[in-house]
Inverse folding.
C-alpha cells in the first residue's frame, strides 16, 4: 500500500469540507487534480472512501475509519521535522546512562532529576554496570555516559568528577568498635577480620582500601564486588568493612556506621565518563545540564 502525503492532505480536506470545490480552494489547487489524488488514494487503499451525491460529499464507513489514521499520520509528519531538529540539537531523543550500584545510594537520583528538569524531552535509559563493564560499553557504543570510578584512559575517554565523599566503617551491632565512643583509627583495626573488595570486579574500592590500610591476607574474611553485599556480610557478623558514606542511607538491621580518624577526608570519587568518539548529540547537552553539579567540586 503506497500513498503520498499530498493524497492524505487532499482526502482530509475533502472529508472535512464535504465539498471538492471548497477543499481544492483550501489547498490552493484546482478540482480535477484533487479528484485524481482521491482516486489514486482509494486505489492504493483498496476501498472506496468517499461518495458524491447531489448534496455534496460524504464519507463511506471505510472513509470514516481511514480519516482517523490519516489525521494521525499528517500530525506525525508535521511533527517530524521539528523532532529531527530537536534530536540534532540534543534536546530530544535518548541518552543511555551506565551507573555503578553504589552511585544509586546517592548521586544517581540527583543526576537523573537534573537532566529531566532541564531536558524534559530526553528519554533516559539506565544500565547498572560496574566500572569495567561501563568502559567496555562506552567503547562499543552501547551506552553514552557513565557514572564510574577512576582511573580512565585519557586518550579514549573524557571524564569529570561529579561526587566525592568520605569512607565510613561498617561494623556489626554490639561490636567492640561500636563502643569506642570516638572515630575509629587504623590502629583500632589491626586485629579485625575485614570484608574487602574483589581486585577484579571492584578494583577501585579494592585499591582504595589497600592504600588506606595495609591489609594482611589472613585478615581478609571475604572479597566481594558489590557494596550492598559487603554490608549484609557485616550484618551476618563475618567481619567489618569500609564503605562510602552514601551507603549509610541503606537500612540494614544489625550494623553500625562509625566515623574514621586519620584517613583522607573525601577519598571516594565518582566521575561522569564518556567516549571522545561519541556521536550522540544529546551527550553535550546533558553534560552542560550537569555542569552545576560538577562545578561544585572545582
Amino acid at each position: 500500500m503506497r500513498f503520498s502525503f499530498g493524497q492524505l492532505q487532499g482526502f482530509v480536506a475533502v472529508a472535512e469540507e464535504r465539498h471538492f470545490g471548497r477543499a481544492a480552494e483550501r489547498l490552493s489547487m484546482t478540482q480535477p487534480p484533487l479528484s485524481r489524488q482521491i482516486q489514486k488514494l482509494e486505489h492504493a487503499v483498496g476501498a472506496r472512501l468517499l461518495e458524491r451525491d447531489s448534496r455534496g460529499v460524504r464519507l463511506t464507513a471505510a472513509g470514516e475509519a481511514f480519516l482517523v489514521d490519516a489525521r494521525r499520520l499528517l500530525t506525525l509528519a508535521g511533527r517530524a521535522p521539528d523532532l529531527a531538529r530537536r534530536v540534532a540539537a540534543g534536546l530530544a531523543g535518548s541518552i543511555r546512562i551506565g551507573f555503578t550500584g553504589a552511585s544509586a545510594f546517592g548521586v544517581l537520583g540527583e543526576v537523573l532529576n537534573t537532566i529531566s528538569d532541564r531536558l524534559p524531552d530526553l528519554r533516559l535509559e539506565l544500565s547498572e554496570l560496574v566500572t569495567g563493564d561501563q568502559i567496555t560499553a562506552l567503547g562499543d557504543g552501547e551506552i553514552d555516559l557513565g557514572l564510574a570510578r577512576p582511573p580512565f584512559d585519557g586518550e579514549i575517554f573524557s571524564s569529570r568528577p561529579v561526587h566525592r565523599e568520605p569512607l565510613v566503617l561498617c561494623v556489626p551491632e554490639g561490636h567492640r568498635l561500636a563502643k569506642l565512643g570516638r572515630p575509629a583509627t587504623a590502629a583500632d583495626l589491626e586485629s579485625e577480620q575485614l570484608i574487602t573488595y574483589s581486585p577484579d570486579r571492584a578494583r577501585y574500592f579494592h585499591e582504595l582500601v589497600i592504600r588506606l590500610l595495609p591489609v594482611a591476607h589472613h585478615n581478609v574474611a571475604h572479597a566481594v564486588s558489590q557494596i550492598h553485599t559487603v554490608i549484609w556480610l557485616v550484618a551476618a557478623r563475618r567481619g567489618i568493612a569500609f564503605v562510602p558514606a552514601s551507603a549509610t542511607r541503606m537500612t540494614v538491621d544489625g550494623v553500625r556506621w562509625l566515623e574514621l580518624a586519620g584517613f583522607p577526608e573525601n577519598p571516594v570519587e565518582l566521575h561522569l565518563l564518556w567516549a571522545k568518539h561519541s556521536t550522540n548529540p544529546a551527550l553535550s547537552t546533558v553534560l552542560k545540564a550537569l555542569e552545576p553539579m560538577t562545578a561544585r567540586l572545582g
Summary: The longest strand covers residues 157-165. The chain is about 40% helix and 20% strand.
